[in-house]
Design brief:
single chain, alpha+beta, 3-stranded antiparallel β-sheet, TadE-like_dom, Pilus assembly protein
């Protein structure tokens, strides 16, 4: 029976590890990136919700909605939304908020955009009926 030489090592599997380790790291980075994008998406929804709520009230203007959007962005966005652009439009019938931003990328060369658009009818006041 032949015994292996004591200084000889078995290198089987080291090639597979050299290929698998970077792929596993890339997979983990993609999962974290997807979670970061999901968080940014929810943050963008919250910003547009606050801006729309402010812009659609009966006595509000588009500037009121824009101010609410900027305040919400300062409060919520932090480092998760970059290149943030928010537009608030208000007509006598509808209010519309459009947001676009980028999510910082952990994977070089990939772009992770976030877009949100919400619209709703403007609140109207009606005179109260007599006797109610």
């Amino acid at each position: 029976m032949r015994r292996p030489h004591p200084t000889r090592r078995d290198d089987r599997g080291s090639t597979e590890l050299a290929v698998a380790a970077p792929l596993l790291l890339l997979l983990v980075m993609l999962v974290v990136q997807a979670a970061l994008w999901g968080h940014a998406h929810h943050t963008a929804q919250a910003i547009t919700h606050h801006a729309l709520a402010a812009a659609r009230t009966a006595q509000a203007t588009g500037a009121d909605g824009q101010a609410a959007a900027e305040q919400a962005a300062d409060q919520f966005a932090g480092q998760v939304l970059t290149d943030l652009s928010i537009t608030v439009e208000r007509t006598p019938e509808t209010a519309r908020v459009t947001l676009s931003a980028q999510v910082p990328s952990l994977v070089p060369g990939l772009s992770w955009p976030v877009h949100q658009q919400r619209s709703a009818p403007v609140e109207r006041t009606t005179p109260a009926e007599e006797g109610t």
